[in-house]
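Posting for a labmate who doesn't have an account.
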Amino acid sequence: MRAEHEVAHLLARSWDEVALLGLNSRQVRTLRAIKDCRTVALGGHVDSCNTCGHIQISYNSCRNRHCPKCQGHKRVQWIEARESELLPVPYFHVVFTLPDELNSLAIHKPKIIYDALFRAAWETIEAFTGKGNKSGMISILHTWGQNLSLHPHIHCIIPGGFVDRNGKWKPSKSEGKFLFPVKAMSKVYRAKYVALLRASDMEVEQSTYDALFKKEWVVYAKRPFGSPSSVIEYLGRYTHKIAISNHRILSIDDDTVTISYKDYRTEGQKKTMTLSHEEFVRRFALHILPKRFVRIRHYGILSSTWKRSKLTDLQSKLKGIVLTLLPVVLKGTYHKCCPCCKTGQMITLLTFGRRGPPSEFYKSAYEKSNSLISI
């Protein structure tokens, strides 16, 4: 169901103010793409049903990974590609967060800060897995909190075991109850991250390092997933998520926007927040990633290089464990079924640029819609 209010609507109403926010060119281009998504500015195509003759004009999507309207199809494709890679073992959900003392550095040097987050998390898992053993991890970067503030963290799914140096699968010593002790992981993770930060070419004051070591870093580990199919459900929820969905925007007026959010300080109680247009756009822009930055990363036995040669063999060795994949239920449909008769297929007659479709197609569509209404 399409949301009544959209990020694109707000950007269209306040576009003149965007130039005054001091955003970089990458952020401005991304916001413009979101504003123009599925409008005549990006061109489109004229489709006709091969059964009932219904004519429909559709405008092109921006396909930007930060756009609230363009993630559903990519999410489905990504999940389908991951289904065949599951192992019939327990999986754990682990979250690595960065302290807010690093927020200002993340704004100015996001690639360095976020690359180090991924690497420190994986090095921590490797340290607890043991030398010569090979674990795996899929990590997904989120940079936001519920109120659109900067809150960098990565969600990870990690199989409950590892491949030893002889190529044999070894389940975790906890017998599937937990992965590793989180307090110990937090200290190792902090040390790994600070070491990577020191090794980078970024200038960081010693007072920042002192503050980082004084603070307890957060590594949060949830209970293991109930089944491998639960991993699929999790991935569908987190992989192509963005800072805010259109459905969380409750209202937009000439000056403000009101959004809903969950306050986790009060056990996830649902609340509302009203922001000026400028403040909403500023917060949203905080989460626009650098060009070509990879926000979903695969490591170890779940990486592409390892999967090509060894994953199938490992799955065969573990075939004694029953792997049950439940049907994945996802919102939205992505085939070109006719919205009118529900049986025919929509065939593209022509494409057009930002000048719009030829006038005769407007007339044809209008006459067709009138004839359908009169029936």
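Reply:
Got it, the structure tokens are right above this. Residues 102 and 226 are 35 Å apart (CA to CA).
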